[in-house]
Amino acid sequence: MIAIAIAHSNIALAKYWGKADVAGNFPAVPSLSLTLDALLTITRVEFDPTLGADSALLDGEVLTGRPLSRITTLLDRVRERASIGFFAKVESRNEFPTAAGLASSASGFAALALAATRAAGLELPIDEISGMARAASASAARSLYGGWVALRAGSPGAERVAAPDHFPVAMLVAVTAAGPKAVGSTEGMTHTRATSPYYATWVNHAPVLFERVRDAVLARDLAALGPAVEQSALMMHASMLAADPAVIYFLPTTLAVIARVRELRAQGTAAFFTMDAGPHVKVLTQKSAAADVATALGEVAGVKRVIVCRPGPDAYCLDPGLDFAQAVERVRSGAGP
Ligand code: DP6
Predict the structure, then answer these.
(1) Ligand 1 pocket check: which of 10, 11, 15, 16 to mutate, most ligand atoms within 8 Å of Cβ?
(2) Atom of ligand 1 nearest to the CA of 139
(3) Which atom of ligand 1 is nearest to the CA of 17?
(4) Across the strands, what pairs with 56?
(5) Which of 169, 209, 258 is nearest to 17 (CA)?
(6) What does residue 129 show for φ and ψ, rounded to 5 degrees?
(7) Residue nearest atom 2 in ligand 1 by C-alpha distance
(8) Between helices 65-82 and 126-136, what is the axis angle to 10°?
(9) Which fold has domain 166-309?
(10) How many CB atoms lie within 10 A of CB 323?
């Protein structure tokens, strides 16, 4: 009753922000993301009849409180689905190039959902596993799939829009600060929904941006995609800025990177920014321009590093006979799905 799963992080091009149903964790808006190859989570789950409780280790730290209860809630769903009563030992590692508050619940809950269902002996269709991940953290639903992925409002699981190699782009992550974010996304979106007069406008307009993003992705049209991506991010942040009190993720370096992206564009480089519930800026550009854009972003004062990502693969499992250290080694040595 052991499984080891790998899932990659994703960055939304059409953003999810706000829940239609808090208890079931259903998003209020449709979203579309790109799964990234360079940011991933490795998770090993072992159900064991001798255990007296669930336990979880993340990057070597024992989890307690809410981080642990979010995991046990997902494990409870898996236990119910598999009709088993055993507790589980979870070990997980974020293979992100830097500990800069980039660690994402998306790859984490996607890897957990896949590893836990497999360890429980369930061979579920991927969209059902995606639905389990969504109930834990909605953006995690998208990380079960590689490439370009949509999560519709009200839909249990995510769906593939296009394969990773559909469109030769790169996503550059400009790291602008160290340490974890101040306000988590769940808390930030709940507060926005409760207090921002712009929230309703965001929810009404997000489907229009989702359609623009999806059509541009399918048409491989970066010139059409970029402006819709930027509007989705800025409109989401506008809804937070209008909350009471405001939720502000922008730092001076965030704005400097955004300004640099606009300058690059004025000089003829197709580069477009997006940002999430944190101060880092993610820049979408053509694969062929990635090295030059990464150099330009790295020169902005305050940028700590730039991580170059390409479209990443579906979540997958490794041989459950490996111990955790061997699994990490296997992934680091470039073993893929
Ligand atoms: C800004 O998926 O972390 O990254 O469902 O409450 O766990 P919960 O929220 P989460 O929110 C992600 C918000 C975002 C945009 C996005 O990924 O679509």
Answers:
(1) 16
(2) 2
(3) 13
(4) 90
(5) 209
(6) -65, -40
(7) 139
(8) 150
(9) Alpha-Beta Plaits (3.30.70)
(10) 12
Nearest CA, atom 14, ligand 1 = 276
Atom from ligand 1 closest to the CA of residue 106: 2
Lining ligand 1 with CB less than 6 A are 12, 15-17, 25, 31, 105, 137-139, 185-186, 276-277
Which residue ranges of the chain lie beneath pLDDT 50? none
Distance CA(194)–CA(215), nearest Å, equals 32
Q: Report pLDDT for 180.
A: 66
Look at residues 209, 220, 94, 113 and name the one whose alpha carbon lies nearest to residue 158.
113
Q: How far is the CA of 293 from the centre of ligand 1 (A)?
A: 26
- pLDDT, one tens digit per residue, over 223-238 is 999 999 999 999 999 9
Q: How many Å lie between the centroid of ligand 1 and the Cα of residue 15?
A: 8
Residue type, 3: A
Helices (H), 123-170: 126-136, 138-142
Please state the domain extents for the chain.
Answer: 2-163+319-332, 166-309
Write out pLDDT tens, residues 54-104.
999 999 999 999 999 999 999 999 999 999 999 999 999 999 865 556 767
Q: What is the pLDDT of residue 104?
A: 76
Say what the pLDDT of residue 182 is: 76
Contact between 159 and 127 under an 8 Å Cβ cutoff? The reply is yes
Grouping H, G, I as helix, E, B as strand and the rest as coil, residue 246 is: coil
Annotation: CATH topology of 2-163+319-332: Ribosomal Protein S5; domain 2 (3.30.230)
Cα(245)–Cα(141) distance, integer angstroms: 30
Predicted TM-score (pTM) above 0.90? yes
pLDDT at 53: 98
- Ramachandran region, residue 323 (left: φ > 0; alpha: ψ -120 to 50; beta: rest): beta
User: Among residues 335, 337, 317, which one has the least CA distance to residue 44?
Assistant: 317
The atom number, within ligand 1, closest to the CA of 10 reads 17
